[in-house]
Amino acid sequence: MGDALALASDVASCDLFQSESVRGAVYFYRGEFVGAINHFENALKAMPSDDPTKRNLADAYLAVGRSSEALATINLVTDRNNLWTYKIAKIYFYRNKLEEAKELIISVPTQLTEDGNLPGKPRILQAAIAIEISKSKTGADRDALVADAENQFKQGVATDSEKWKNILKYVHSTKHESFIKECESLKNYINLWID
């Protein structure tokens, strides 16, 4: 990671926005979310209209449990595309607004790759939402939600099964990345559902 920080120092000579954006990304992917927040906030001050920085800052806020700030920040994004819808659904999921999250996530294509180039994330989120909703149900209603979650999960994993198997194993065992709540919701099912 030292190379990445050295790169960020080199980028510092470009301009403040680029430098702070790169530093924020480095801190985020190192799991140092508070540092990422500081750098993304600085980048956003330098270029307030930059939608990717707003999304990155919202992700960092969400990773440290600041879901209100995450929601306020993502709502500043001007390009309300599938990625925006995915991010809003994820924030709602983290805020336990499960029905709202469910309504949003079903419209996001499985192949969405703008968020880390990993297709399938919308279906994994949809599976986690279904599992959380199922906890308040009984009998056939609960069983139907669990079956739907399994279907959504398998659709997501099928987009790149080897990569997903490694990610789910890594995230589940180390509790790293901002994907933790989804894995926590699915922890009793991951090993059963991965072929």
TrEMBL record:
TPR repeat feature ranges: 17-50
Keyword list, A-Z: TPR repeat
SUPFAM superfamilies associated with the record: TPR-like
Protein name from the UniProt record: Uncharacterized protein
Organism, scientific name: Methylobacterium haplocladii
Phylogenetic lineage: Bacteria, Pseudomonadati, Pseudomonadota, Alphaproteobacteria, Hyphomicrobiales
